[in-house]
């Protein structure tokens, strides 16, 4: 059943004009935002003639004419011409913007452009290959530029000699060859024709650099409405339409019999001329489909369907039949400089989004000037084709489902079958579905030939479908719901508690007059026109189960946007400010706070508090990001899978490089097992195993842990605890593996050999003997855990005594009266006395290096756990007090790299120090009643900060690291403001410790 209403009777045409003509969206759909003509008396005559006669008659066969287009769903758009030879370059310089606009951008004369054409010889062009690529990608129609704005015909035209047969050495008609290939592969064929823009013709609009014509960049003769301001110029344009545009269009129809014609930029001509062109088309071929960019004005559109904006990322609301035209990069014609190609997954999801909203997707490819498709485009097509081949039932012969919007993706439907397109896979194995009132007969993966049923758990507010731990297809996994009857649904959108939800402004309830929609591009999917205090934007949603969410507002700021707003979620109120930009549009992402929501119905509204300039902001979306462990660990799992892939790439031919440490100039830096950080990534994998219980992480943890084993006898390092305890020690706590026990004991005994009885400490570095005699760094407190564990597992009490001696000596000599710690203390091995106290990684000898303070806090808390010596507990609490009450500790509790760094607040942060502090505070809170709430609350705040977008890497970025913004050794300019593997390790450890406390379990428990 068609949702678009068309005029069916000429008798009713005039009376029903306002409601029956296909409605276009305001300010949408073309390269120029000012698309639409104003219907003057001249235009009204053309409208009246159309709706009372030929056009109304043509609409009687509209449904039959467009039926194939409805079924096609997915097509290939091709921009290819003389401009493809230049590839976005002119006279050795890059040309900005669309490559197909070369002639206009560089103000090239007709004669000079003709010289370029004389060298256009696409000898590698193969129509069969092009069409086969389209067909194998699942595309069912193909539209190519027969003539773009440059006026150059890419076919054998008898109307104008400005064509490929007469002006190039190619001497072939590629349009004829493509038409034949489309018939061979069963693909519908059509032409793009630039009817209103023609830069070569002396009478056509557009060329104002050679002919001084209207319709160009100079806005001559009144600009956009030149034909109203200077009607005396219109006969010249009519002459072009009569002599070139209409004759060439008729030529294409009669000689090639296309299934569809595609037009653009109608605002360059008055509506009367556009309608006249459409009338000529209908006279020549009443069955050809015509898109919506030929004849339209205001709320009227005489085409067969509507066109939305170019290069969309999201779709604004459209009723009826519509089509979107993304392109693989940012240009439509080929540009050698444009490498911004999107992955196949982007288009797979965009296709599903379009079909779920009742639209078609016409995806553009810009072939090279030699006639071949860019290898990047071919790769994208193959990726799409592989997905479509397995999931075609969810795209073709389906329509939008009646289900409300869901958090994880979109839905399509055919009769009693509902297809769930899952873009964001739940890590906890529960796909939360809301709004379906029917009983599900069966749920199964579309790609499963056996249709093995997935377990279904029906609750009061939602249905949970139990899915595999990993997405079978990370771009879009489709789950089929088989119902006994057509779905009965609730219209209120659904928010899942285990998946981030994007409340797009396009999907909001707009209260008040004046709002408009952006074009849907990556930075344009906003609602604008927010200029009154009476305007509000709202969403209503149902939540399946109670959860805590972080609230994020994302908007576009411009020089004209400023003010303040209030976001109200039920009774919770949050305020935000909008600052105008100095120039240009800037996307802002603001975290407003968190909200604890109970299962049920909720309302979220944004209202202005103050309007600083002409517009408040251009709202893109509000994000509700679950702050439960499931959501955080979902990201950690995704990042760790990526990391394992990146490790395999980086250590090819380098088997000694076994563990990731950081990013170096954007590249993954791997280290050998001897590096002090080698044990942290195996530890991350063990934490994932402990949380998820998935075999995937158990196997990975074992593999990467085994790589560290040879370090158990490496006596040249003090970092044995970091390397062995974080890997084997964490693994042993989970598995109780006897071999891991042996490794721990051996490593502890190796570390003990670095103990000096005279100093009462374990030696740190062996290097720089000219600088230090017997250096001991605060970091060494962390390695004592290996000694304590070794003592318990072996019964060797000497290991315990060494650990206690080192802790006592360090407590005596490393700490200042305010309980801040020195980094390095150098000892005389003959007397055991301190030689000097200094730093290596801090700002100055007397400064408080942030991670050093964290090591001390963690180390003495652990020492109290192992000894129950209250002196250690008291010391840990003193260190905590120093950190938590320091005036330079930022509000988000993520410290600067040094508490005394001179450039605060413009100094780098250290997320690794924050993670260590949070983990230590959780444990410390379990040993004291006095300050337990403070410690837990601070740790909670740190983790909330680290879980935010400022510190957490976006999924599938940064080579798989979880946290950003750590600092290793700033004085040496080493690892400054980068991801570090130990930040990830202590972050996950802290999360698990916090979970245990929340659930009333022992803080250190790692049992699955």
TrEMBL record:
Pfam families: Alpha_L_fucos (PF01120). Keywords: Glycosidase, Hydrolase, Signal. GO terms for molecular function: alpha-L-fucosidase activity; chondroitin hydrolase activity. Coiled coil: none annotated. One of its GO terms (biological process) is polysaccharide catabolic process. Residues 61-392 form the Glycoside hydrolase family 29 N-terminal domain. It is an enzyme of class 3 (hydrolase). SMART domains: Alpha_L_fucos. InterPro entries: 6-hairpin_glycosidase_sf, 6hp_glycosidase-like_sf, FUC_metazoa-typ, GH, Glyco_hydro_29, Glyco_hydro_29_N, Glyco_hydro_b, UG_Glycosaminoglycan_Hydrolase. Residues 1-24 form the signal peptide. Its EC number is 3.2.1.51. Belongs to the glycosyl hydrolase 29 family. Alpha-L-fucosidase is responsible for hydrolyzing the alpha-1,6-linked fucose joined to the reducing-end N-acetylglucosamine of the carbohydrate moieties of glycoproteins. PANTHER family: HYDROLASE, PUTATIVE (AFU_ORTHOLOGUE AFUA_7G05090)-RELATED. This is alpha-L-fucosidase. It comes from Hydrobacter penzbergensis.
């Amino acid at each position: 059943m068609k949702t678009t209403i068309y005029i069916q009777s000429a008798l009713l045409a005039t009376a029903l004009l306002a409601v029956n003509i296909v409605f276009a969206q305001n300010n949408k759909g073309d390269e120029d935002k000012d698309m639409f003509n104003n219907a003057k008396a001249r235009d009204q005559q053309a409208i009246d003639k159309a709706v009372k006669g030929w056009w109304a008659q043509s609409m009687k066969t509209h449904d039959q004419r467009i039926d194939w287009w409805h079924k096609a769903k997915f097509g290939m758009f091709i921009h290819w011409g003389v401009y493809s030879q230049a590839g976005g370059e002119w006279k050795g310089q890059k040309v900005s913007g669309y490559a197909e606009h070369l002639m206009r951008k560089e103000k090239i004369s007709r004669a000079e452009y003709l010289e370029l054409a004389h060298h256009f010889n696409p000898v590698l062009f193969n129509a069969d290959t092009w069409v086969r690529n389209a067909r194998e990608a699942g595309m069912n129609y193909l539209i190519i530029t027969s003539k773009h704005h440059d006026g150059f015909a890419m076919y054998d035209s008898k109307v104008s000699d400005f064509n490929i047969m007469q002006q190039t050495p190619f001497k072939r008609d590629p349009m004829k060859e493509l038409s034949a290939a489309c018939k061979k592969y069963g693909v519908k064929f059509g032409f793009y024709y630039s009817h209103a823009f023609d830069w070569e013709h002396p009478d056509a609009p557009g060329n104002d650099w050679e002919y001084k014509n209207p319709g160009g960049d100079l806005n001559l003769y009144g600009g956009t409405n030149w034909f109203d301001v200077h009607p005396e110029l219109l006969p010249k344009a009519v002459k072009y339409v009569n002599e070139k545009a209409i004759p060439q269009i008729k030529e294409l129809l009669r000689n090639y019999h296309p299934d569809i014609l595609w037009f653009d930029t109608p605002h360059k001509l008055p509506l009367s001329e556009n309608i006249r062109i459409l009338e000529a088309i209908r006279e020549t071929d009443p069955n050809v489909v015509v898109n919506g960019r030929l004849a339209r004005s205001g709320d009227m559109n005489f085409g067969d369907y509507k066109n939305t904006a170019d290069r969309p990322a999201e779709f604004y609301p459209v009723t009826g039949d519509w089509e979107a035209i993304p392109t693989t990069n940012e240009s439509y014609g080929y540009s050698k400089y444009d490498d911004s190609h999107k992955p196949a997954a982007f288009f797979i999801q965009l296709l599903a989004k379009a079909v779920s909203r009742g639209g078609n997707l016409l995806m553009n490819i810009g072939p090279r000037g030699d006639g071949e498709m860019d290898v990047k485009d071919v790769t994208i097509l193959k990726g799409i084709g592989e997905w479509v081949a397995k999931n075609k039932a969810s795209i073709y012969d389906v329509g939008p489902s009646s289900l409300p919007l869901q958090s994880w993706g979109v839905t399509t439907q055919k009769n009693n079958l509902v297809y769930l397109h899952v873009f964001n896979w739940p890590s906890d194995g529960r796909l939360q579905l809301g709004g379906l009132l029917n009983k599900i007969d069966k749920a199964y993966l579309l790609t499963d030939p056996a249709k093995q049923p997935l377990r279904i758990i029906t609750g009061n507010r939602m249905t949970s479908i139990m899915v595999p731990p990993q997405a079978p297809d990370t771009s879009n996994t489709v789950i089929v719901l088989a119902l006994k009857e057509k779905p009965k649904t609730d219209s209120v959108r659904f928010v899942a508690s285990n998946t981030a939800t994007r409340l797009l402004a396009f999907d909001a309830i707009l209260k008040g007059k004046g709002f408009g929609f952006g074009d849907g591009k990556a930075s344009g999917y906003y609602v604008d026109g927010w200029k009154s205090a009476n305007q509000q934007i709202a969403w209503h949603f149902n939540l399946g189960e109670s959860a805590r969410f972080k609230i994020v507002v994302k908007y576009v700021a411009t020089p004209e946007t400023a003010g303040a707003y209030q976001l109200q979620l039920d009774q919770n109120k949050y305020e935000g400010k909008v600052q105008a930009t100095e120039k240009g549009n800037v996307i802002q992402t603001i975290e407003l706070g968190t909200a604890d929501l109970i299962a049920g119905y909720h309302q979220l509204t944004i209202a202005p508090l103050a309007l600083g300039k002409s517009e408040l902001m251009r709202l893109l979306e509000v994000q509700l990001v679950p702050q439960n462990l499931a959501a955080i660990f979902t990201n950690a799992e995704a990042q760790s899978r990526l990391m394992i892939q990146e490790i395999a790439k980086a250590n090819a031919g380098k088997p000694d490089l076994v563990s990731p440490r950081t990013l170096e100039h954007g590249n993954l830096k791997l280290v050998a097992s001897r590096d002090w950080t080698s044990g942290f990534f195996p530890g991350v994998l063990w934490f994932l195993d402990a949380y998820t219980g998935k075999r995937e992480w158990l196997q990975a943890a074992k593999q990467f842990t085994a790589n560290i084993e040879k370090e158990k006898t490496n006596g040249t390092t003090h970092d044995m605890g970091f390397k062995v305890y974080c890997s084997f020690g964490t693994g042993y706590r989970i598995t109780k593996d006897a071999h891991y026990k042996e490794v721990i004991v051996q490593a502890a005994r190796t570390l003990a050999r670095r103990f000096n009885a005279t100093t009462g400490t374990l030696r740190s570095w062996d290097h720089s003997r000219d600088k230090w005699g017997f250096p001991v760094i605060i970091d060494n407190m962390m390695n004592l855990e290996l000694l304590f564990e070794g003592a318990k597992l072996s019964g060797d009490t000497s290991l315990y005594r060494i650990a206690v001696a080192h802790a006592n000596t360090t407590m005596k000599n490393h700490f200042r009266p305010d309980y801040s710690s020195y980094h390095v203390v150098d000892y005389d091995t003959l007397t055991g006395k301190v030689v000097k106290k200094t730093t290596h990684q801090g700002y100055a000898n007397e400064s408080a290096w942030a991670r050093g303070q964290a090591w001390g806090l963690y180390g003495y808390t652990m020492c109290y756990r192992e000894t129950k010596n209250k002196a250690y507990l008291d010391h840990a609490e003193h260190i905590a007090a120093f950190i938590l009450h320091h005036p330079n500790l930022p509000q988000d509790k993520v410290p600067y790299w040094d508490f005394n760094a001179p450039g605060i607040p413009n100094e780098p942060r250290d997320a690794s120090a924050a993670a260590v502090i949070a983990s230590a505070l959780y444990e410390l809170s379990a040993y004291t009643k006095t300050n337990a709430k403070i410690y837990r609350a601070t740790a909670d705040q740190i983790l909330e900060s680290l879980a935010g977008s400022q510190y957490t890497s976006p999924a599938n970025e940064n080579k798989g690291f979880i946290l950003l913004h750590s600092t290793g050794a700033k004085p040496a300019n080493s690892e400054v403001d980068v991801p570090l593997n130990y930040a990830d390790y202590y972050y996950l450890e802290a999360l698990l410790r916090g979970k245990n406390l929340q659930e009333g379990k022992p803080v250190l428990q790692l049992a699955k």
